[in-house]
Amino acid sequence: MKDWLSELRLHQWSKNILIAVPLLLGHIAGDPASAIRSIAGILVFGLVASTSYIMNDLADIEADRQHPTKRNRAIAASRISVVQGGAPRFCC
Questions:
Q1: From CA 4, how far away is CA 73, in angstroms rounded?
Q2: DSSP string of 4-68?
Q3: Those residues with Cβ within 8 angstroms of residue 45's Cβ, 6 or more apart along the chain or in another chain
Q4: pLDDT, tens digit, for every residue of 20-49?
Q5: How many domains is the chain built from?
Q6: Residue 86 banded pLDDT, cuts 50, 70, 90
């Protein structure tokens, strides 16, 4: 589970908080429907970003294995398999 959380790079999701700026500046933070839409937007953007990080790690697996720090990522270090990462074995 720790490897998956690391692979999703949840710390990168913090920038998605910017989606809530119009909610706050528009003084509609108290509107439940608007708040739910903003929260959903933050989650969806985060999941899309995480998916792109995983796809990039799968595409660059060999280069990442040679890199001094990227080789410690879960996919490059084979703690998460290519199949678990979502790509067919023959493509990577």
A1: 10
A2: HHHHHTGGGGGGGGGGGHHHHHTT-TT-HHHHHHHHHHHHHHHHHHHHHHHHHHHHTHHHHHHST
A3: 13, 16, 19
A4: 899 889 989 889 999 999 999 999 999 999
A5: 1
A6: low
